């Protein structure tokens, strides 16, 4: 209970650090994600998964980091702590970089942002990507997977938090790790959806052949 009551005061203190002072502090820039090796697409004609650009709630759609913790309704915009690239592009990039090698293990190519003949499309709506140094970091999102004809194959939600550490840099690293966890769940859901889709296609072909054979007999 003490932590819940202390948090608004901590936010106010952070806001003062962000906005107060006789001289404007130099901006600091942060990049989501850990360094990943470049992974080339699988060769040959492989089924493709596309990941369109992630959508953001309006309160996150800004250059500055947003501070919030737990269920707090108050946010602080860290005006001098900025994302190094637009946040929707950054989150999409991290998901894409992390999902691609996982999907390769299942024989699936991941393309971004689009491919007309893709077997699957993974839509992601980010709900939370925030936290506070000295408290926690949280990522929350909804996702849906569609087939080539637009049929909804799977959907779900992801919510996870972790210790944010004591600095903005550690908080961003914590958010990156949570996004990597989310990528793993998305890759697993995508490969599972494709396996079910392929099985349905095989069963459909088999039934059609059997029916045709019966008609001939």
Give a verbal description of the structure.
With 217 residues, the protein is an alpha/beta fold. The protein has a domain at 46-61 and 84-216: Rossmann fold (3-Layer(aba) Sandwich). It is built from three helices and eight strands. It has helices spanning 2-19, 87-104, 168-216; strands spanning 28-30, 48-50, 64-67, 76-83, 109-111, 120-131, 136-147, 152-163. It has a five-stranded mixed sheet. The chain has a three-stranded mixed sheet with strand order 1-4-3. Strand 3 and strand 4 form a beta hairpin. The radius of gyration is 22 Å and the shape is elongated. Mean pLDDT is 84; it is low at 1-6 and 205-217.
Strand content: 25-35%
Task: Please tell me the overall pLDDT.
Answer: 84
Encode the helix/strand succession as letters: HEEEEHEEEEH
Taking strands numbered 1, 2, ... along the chain, how are they ordered across the largest sheet?
5-2-6-7-8
CATH topology of the domain at 46-61 and 84-216: Rossmann fold
CATH superfamily of the domain at 46-61 and 84-216: ABC-type transport auxiliary lipoprotein component
Helix content: 25-40%
Largest sheet: 5 strands, mixed
E-strand count: 8
Low-pLDDT segments, ≥5 res:
1-6, 205-217
CATH class of the domain at 46-61 and 84-216: Alpha Beta
| Secondary structure tally, helices | 3
Write down the overall geometry. elongated
Helix/strand-derived category reads: alpha/beta
Name given to the CATH architecture of the domain at 46-61 and 84-216: 3-Layer(aba) Sandwich
The radius of gyration computed from the alpha-carbon positions, rounded to a whole number of angstroms, is 22 Å
